[in-house]
Design goal:
three-stranded antiparallel sheet, about 950 residues, Rossmann fold, transmembrane helix, SLC12_C, alpha/beta
Length: about 950
């Protein structure tokens, strides 16, 4: 044998090609925003994957995380929440992504991550059901994220670059409610921009690939410009020049960016400042002139006019630069309701004062800002391009998460230390002629930040849409994105977007925690710096953020995940991937079995654990025999007992014969199909036996089936349909009795209803002869829980052995049945000394008063004896008379339940006498179910 092994061939063998074909349809919707189109993927196959940590994971992840939210919302978050709460908010966001990055690194390095990204990881670790559910949510997250980026770009364009393009003019910039004119602007321009990007993506991804590095470069430069501006303003706070950002014919300069304040309330600059004018003249205009006084008093309430007249109008430096006083002033939280210009102070005129457009709180801000930290899956989705994914993904992802977290913290502290609080809370810069606050802080030109923020939105949206390589898929993606655009605001879209990402992150953390706790053999990630407690903390943090911010959305996303899960489960997964959920089920089963003691259960916990024996003497290549199918139906109708169900097919043959083994496998598949059809949860098995070894095979079956305390205690079997099956039936009966099994023997099984039959009405009759009566009642009760038997009423027929005690016995039985909480009608007959039943005809049914006591002596024998023909003839006569009584009362009943006479321990006696005994007893009865207890079954009256 050649000692050299082709590694590439070995690697290809690790991946099941059938699995690739099977999941190709599911992967299409699960591709991440960095996944290439089919054309690029074909080109990539001819190129060696050689990207390292920096270019393959670190920079792409940073480029995806850093975006427009950082520039247009972080300063506002600092102003509203205060520096302390902002630090906590960022801690929650960044800790969530950091813990998820650690779990992601462990999961991604536990084997080869193929295309499909999050879907691939979750489906291979939690199953196809969860993989599909979370994969769809992740696809929706990327699609909705593209809408948020587009609306963010439109906000930058209409407010800060081309305000003249606003439909309705700049006066509608403050009309940002759900049906406000500015929201309509976002919808209209966002839809146009979406159409433009769809056209670009449909043409190819080369342009998108060129945009990505440019977008990252301008974002990094914009961040550096903000830090440079903070330092520059702190150093030159006494009068150095600043270039003003407005789009004018001539570039204007001013010495400081000032705002006009009325006591503690920030005023909009448009009151006293012409749009597009030089900001250096703002302080000259911030005076109580006659024109301004007229504007205030004519457009507001009389109380505000008086307040304006009595208050001080001051021009304040908006950007004092980094200093401790500003830092201390911005420490406190300033949450406000909609329309308030200061906490608990409502704006008298929203057109004059800077006010909030909606209610703010810590968790609302958390929901708005969380999308700014998403994007940590980028490196995982690029695993096909990485030279060493096992090394690059953990290093690049965690480093990118830490880097972006440090940037967010530094920017938040910079904004809090260099910009006054009222200006920070001015979300749209209305106090500074509708200018971007972060851009005004930057140096040398505010255009750096404006350009960077706009390009970042355009490029990020293109990448999200690139996850749809096919035209039809692209159109569906665009349609979903359009629905999100109709929300009409970055803040509203962000609140919805959170939950798609958080569900994905939560499941990634759960995967890592699950495998770590189960210690499954195939859990061997190369990344070692993880722990199950960190993963559980990450998952808990994800759910905490979801429910704390908007519990309604959280419930909806969980329900959506559950619906998709059940749909995929219903459709069925064709491949077994050895996922963690099945590993968890195995571990839980093992733990539970070890907790269940291998001894008789408490009466309160007793329930029928069914061992269903089916036997097919004539092999069928199409369907199972109706006798066997109906027996499985009957077991399914008894499932209200919530016990174990094992269906064993008995097949004559040898395990050494390939043909017999093939028959057994086919029979097992049919059994499992029938069990699934009737919703009988359990196991299907087959037993190949030699006719000469029946006793040994069946004895081994009864003794060994089950595990620990979870093993069958009740055998459900058919009355043989042909003479050839009699011998097998006799051995089954003998071994079941020998192993103290409760026996349920169905006679007339072909007449039993299937699970799809019409509902039955009438009576279920219980003939209580032996001490197994309570077991008969329990069986009848379980049957009545099924829809087929629910319309039937219970009747109990009992015989008093002591003469004259029939009335007393009836009262006792009625009380006992009442305490068992079972509804039934009781009939009692008593045997007299002269062997004639004496009864009061008021409650004894037809024929019972003439029944002989002889039957009791025959029925109650430990084993029916057949010493001579005379005894046997007498026994048959007694049985015939009892059959007449049963037929006279129960002929039209839907089901008759009888105590099973104790069978002989001798196979020959069963074949020669016992089977005739049973046949005589059930003559002219449609459906009969015999119940024979082992003496261990107890039905308790306790709760």
């Amino acid at each position: 044998m050649n000692s050299e092994i082709n590694f590439s061939l070995m690697k290809s063998n690790f991946v099941d090609l059938d699995e690739k074909d099977e999941r190709s349809g599911q992967i299409k919707f699960a591709n991440s925003d960095t996944t290439p189109t089919s054309k690029e993927r074909n080109l990539r196959e001819t190129r060696k994957a050689n990207l390292g940590v920096m270019l393959g994971v670190y920079l792409p992840t940073i480029q995806h995380i850093l975006g427009v939210t950082m520039f247009i919302r972080l300063a506002w978050v600092v102003g509203i929440a205060g520096i302390v709460d902002t630090m906590i908010l960022l801690l929650l966001c960044c800790l969530c992504t950091l813990l998820t990055s650690i779990s992601l690194s462990a999961v991604a390095t536990n084997g080869i991550v193929e295309s499909g990204g999050v879907y691939f990881m979750i489906s291979r670790n939690l199953g196809a059901e969860f993989g599909s559910a979370v994969g769809i949510l992740f696809y929706l997250a990327n699609t909705v994220a593209s809408s948020m980026y587009l609306i963010g770009g439109i906000e930058v364009m209409l407010l800060y670059i081309f305000p003249s393009l606003t439909i309705g003019g700049s006066d509608v910039h403050s009309d940002t409610d759900m049906w406000g004119m500015m929201s309509h602007n976002y919808r209209i321009y966002g839809s146009i921009l979406l159409l433009l990007e769809v056209i670009i993506v449909a043409m190819g991804v080369r342009f998108v690939q060129l945009i990505a590095p440019v977008s990252l470069l301008v974002v990094i430069i914009s961040i550096l410009a903000c830090f440079a501006g903070g330092l520059e303003k702190a150093i030159n706070h006494s009068g150095q020049q600043y270039v003003f950002i407005k789009f004018h014919q001539q570039q204007s300069v001013c010495y400081m960016f000032h705002v006009c304040m009325l006591n503690q309330q920030l005023l909009q600059s448009r009151i006293f400042f012409p749009h597009g004018a030089d900001l250096s003249t703002l302080c000259k205009r911030c005076v109580k002139s006659e024109d301004i006084s007229d504007d205030f008093c004519n457009s507001t309430t009389a109380s505000f006019c008086t307040h304006f007249t009595a208050s001080t109008l001051a021009c304040t430096n908006a950007f004092p630069g980094i200093n401790m006083q500003t830092f201390y002033d911005n420490m406190k939280r300033m949450y406000m309701d909609a329309g308030e210009s200061y906490p608990d102070i409502a704006a008298d005129d929203a057109g004059l004062e800077v006010s909030q457009d909606f209610r703010t709180s810590f968790f609302i801000l958390l929901a708005i800002y969380f999308p700014a930290v998403t994007g940590i899956m980028t490196g995982t989705n690029m695993s096909g391009d990485l030279k060493d994914p096992q090394k690059s993904i953990p290093c690049g992802t965690i480093a990118a998460t830490l880097t972006t977290s440090a940037i967010y913290y530094a920017l938040a502290l910079l904004f809090g230390a260099s910009i006054t609080g009222p200006v920070l809370r001015d979300k749209y810069g209305r106090s500074l002629d509708s200018s971007m606050i972060a851009a005004l802080l930057s140096w040398p030109s505010p255009w750096i930040v404006i350009t960077g923020s706009f390009l970042s939105t355009f490029g990020a949206a293109l990448q999200c849409l690139c996850s749809a390589p096919r035209l039809l898929h692209l159109l569906v993606t665009a349609l979903i994105a359009e629905f999100a655009i109709l929300l009409g605001a970055v803040d509203k879209i962000a609140e919805v977007l959170d939950f798609f990402f958080l569900m994905c992150y939560a499941f990634v953390n759960l995967i890592c925690a699950l495998h770590s706790l189960l210690k499954v053999p195939n859990w061997r990630p190369r990344f070692r710096y993880y722990h199950w407690s960190l993963s559980l903390t990450g998952a808990a943090l994800c759910f905490f953020i979801m429910f704390a911010s908007h519990w309604q959305y959280a419930v909806f996303s969980i329900i959506l995940t559950f619906v998709i899960y059940k749909y995929v489960e219903w459709k069925g997964a064709k491949k077994e991937w050895g996922d963690g959920i099945r590993g968890l089920a195995l571990s839980t089963a093992q733990y539970s079995l070890l907790k269940v003691e291998d001894k008789d259960p408490h009466p309160k916990n007793w329930r029928p654990q069914l061992l269903v024996l089916v036997y097919d003497s004539f092999w069928s290549n199409s369907v199972m025999d109706k006798w066997n199918v109906n027996l499985i139906n009957l077991a399914g109708q008894l499932k209200a007992g919530r016990g174990l169900a094992i269906v064993v097919a008995l097949i004559k043959g040898s395990s050494w014969n390939c043909g017999d083994r093939q028959k057994a496998e086919e029979m097992k598949e049919r059994i499992q199909h029938e069990m699934l059809r009737v919703h009988l949860r359990g196991f299907g098995k087959t037993l190949l036996f030699d006719e000469n070894q029946m006793h040994g095979c069946f004895a081994t079956l009864f003794q060994s089936i089950g595990i620990g305390g979870l093993k069958p205690n009740t055998v459900l079997m058919n009355w043989p349909k042909i003479e050839e099956e009699n011998a097998v039936f006799a051995v089954e009966l003998v071994e079941a009795v020998a192993n103290d099994e409760c026996i349920m023997l169905a006679k007339g099984i072909t007449e039993f209803p299937s699970s799809s039959s019409d509902r039955l009405t009438g009576y279920i009759d219980i003939w209580w002869i032996l001490l197994d009566g309570d077991l008969l009642m329990l069986t009848a009760f379980l049957l009545k829980q099924h829809k087929i038997w629910r319309g039937c009423k219970l009747r109990i027929f009992a015989i008093a052995e002591i003469p004259g005690k029939n009335v007393e016995l009836k009262a006792m039985l009625q009380k006992y049945i009442y305490m068992l909480r079972i509804d039934a009608t009781v009939f009692v007959g008593a045997a007299s000394e002269n062997n004639e039943m004496q009864a009061e005809t008021t409650f004894i049914p037809n024929g019972l008063s003439s029944f002989s006591k002889d039957y009791l002596s025959v029925y109650n024998q430990r084993e029916i004896e057949f010493h001579n023909d005379e005894n046997w003839k007498g026994t048959l006569e007694t049985i015939k008379r009892f059959n007449e009584v049963i037929v006279g009362n129960s002929k039209d009943s839907q089901l008759v339940l009888l105590s099973l006479p104790r069978p002989p321990v001798n196979k020959e006696k069963i074949l020669s006498h016992y089977m005739r005994y049973i046949s005589t007893l059930t003559l002219n009865l449609q459906r009969v179910l015999f119940i024979g207890g082992s003496g261990k079954e107890v039905v308790t009256i306790n709760s």
